[in-house]
Amino acid sequence: MEAPASALVETPLDDLWSRIDGFLRARCREDLYERWFEPLRPVSLGEGRLQIGAPDKFHRDFVEDNYRGWFEEFIPELTGERLRIAFAVDDAPRPIGAPASPPPAAVAARAAEPHLEPRDSRPNPRYAFDTFVVGASNHFAFAAAQAVAANPGRTWNPLFLHGDSGLGKTHLLHAVAHAILEKSGGRVAIVSSERYTNDFVAALSRGTMDEFRRKYRECSALLVDDVQFLAGKDKTAEEFFHTFNELHDHHVQIVLSSDRSPKELKGLDERLCSRFEWGMRVQIEVPEFETRAAILQKKADVEKIDLPDDVTQLLAQHIRSNVRELEGALMRLAAFASLKSEPITVPLARDVLSDVIPPPGYRPPIEKIQEAVAGHYGLTVAKLTSASREQKIAFPRQVAMYLCRELAKEKFQSIAEKFNKKDHTTVIAAVDRVKGLLESDDAVRTAVAQLSAKLAP
C-alpha cells in the first residue's frame, strides 16, 4: 500500500537539516563528523529558532559550548536568514546505521508513535579509569574512586566528590560505574540529580512509585551527579533520603558528586547532608599546568589530532579554569583547522581562541582586577570602590590597589581615580601595607597568589 502523498512531502525542517548535514559532512574530518555531528538530529524549527537534539547531556553540553557559535555563523549561508540555535537532550534510541536525518515518511509518522521511556542511563564509554589523566589536583579523588570500585559498599560508602564544574567528577562517576559493572555483572543506576527528580515526579504522576523504587534501590550501585540540585526539592530529597538509607544498610555502593562540600549545601535537610559525610569526602582542585598539558595530549591522542608541543603549552598556560573548557578549546581549534585545511599552529590557535588566549604583553585592566578581588572577598565592585572604612571592605580594596600596581602597572593617580580617591597617597599606602603583609601573613600571600593566577594572561 502506497503512503499518502502528504507523508512524502519534505518539511522545511527536513530540508534545512539535509543541507546542514551535507555542509558538515563536506567541511569536517570524517572522525570529527562521526563523533560529534552525525548523532545530532533536528527537533523543531520556528520563530527564528532551530532546536537540535543530542543523544545525552554530555554530548549536548559539548556541542553547545564549542560549536553553537559556529552553527550560528554558517547556517545563515544556507538559509539566507539568521537562526538562534538551541541544543537539547533527545535520548530516544538511535538505530545503528540510521541516517542523520530521517526520511520524510518517518517524520510524518513520528507523531503517531506512542511515547517511549528513555533508555536507562548507562556509563559513558568515553569515561573510564584509563582515560582519566591523574595529577596533583585530582590524585586523591582518583585513588578513592578506584578503591570503592574495587570493593564496592565496603571501603568508603558513600564516596562524595566535590569541586568546581568541569574538573572530572562526572568522569570518575562513570569510571566507577564501569568498574562495578565489570566486577559484579549487575545493574548500576547512574543519573544526574535532574534525571532522578524527573523520574520521581513522573512516577508520582503515573502512580508507579514501586517501579521507581525498584529502579533505584535494586541495583549494584547508585551514582548521582550534581546532588546540589536536590536543594529546594523537598519531596525528591526526602525520597532520596530513604533510598540512601536503604542502600547504605545493604552495603550497596553510593557515589555522589557536587560543586560544593556537604557542609556548604544550602536548602538540603541536615540529616541528608550529614549522611553525605559518612564515608569519604574528596575535593578535586583546578589542574596545575603539567596536568593540563597531559590532558590536552591525551585528548589529542584519543581524537587523533596532530597537536604540536608549543600549541599544547599555549593552551595549558592560558586555559586554567577547568578540564571541560580546556578540551573544548582543543576541539574548537581542531574543527577550525579541519575546515580551513590547515595544520594546527600557534598563530591559528591565537586567532581561533582569541576569546580565551590574550595577546602577548597582556595586562589586566583595572576593572577586571576590581571584579576579581570583589568576587574573591564576597563584595560588589560598588562596595569595593566606596568610601567605607570597614576592615572587611578596606583591606580587599588595598589588595586590589596593590594588584593594579603590580599586574596592570598603572600609575598611582590612575588607580586612585578608579577607586574614587582624590589623593594618590592613599594608593601608595595601600601598596606598601600589602607588600609588608606578604612577608608575614600566609593568608594574604595565598589570596594574592590566587588572584594573581586568576588574572594572569
From TrEMBL:
Question: Is Cell membrane included in the keywords of this UniProt record?
Answer: no
Q: Which residues form the signal peptide?
A: none
Q: Which residues form the Chromosomal replication initiator DnaA C-terminal domain?
A: 365-434
Which of UniProt's keywords are assigned here?
ATP-binding, Cytoplasm, DNA replication, DNA-binding, Lipid-binding, Nucleotide-binding
Annotated stretches, region: Disordered = 97-123
Q: Which SUPFAM superfamilies match?
A: P-loop containing nucleoside triphosphate hydrolases (SSF52540), TrpR-like (SSF48295)
Give the record's GO CC terms.
Answer: cytoplasm; plasma membrane
Explain the purpose of this protein. Answer: Plays an essential role in the initiation and regulation of chromosomal replication. ATP-DnaA binds to the origin of replication (oriC) to initiate formation of the DNA replication initiation complex once per cell cycle. Binds the DnaA box (a 9 base pair repeat at the origin) and separates the double-stranded (ds)DNA. Forms a right-handed helical filament on oriC DNA; dsDNA binds to the exterior of the filament while single-stranded (ss)DNA is stabiized in the filament's interior.
Q: What is known of its domains?
A: Domain I is involved in oligomerization and binding regulators, domain II is flexibile and of varying length in different bacteria, domain III forms the AAA+ region, while domain IV binds dsDNA.
The protein's name is: Chromosomal replication initiator protein DnaA
Task: Identify the species of origin.
Answer: Anaeromyxobacter dehalogenans (strain 2CP-C)
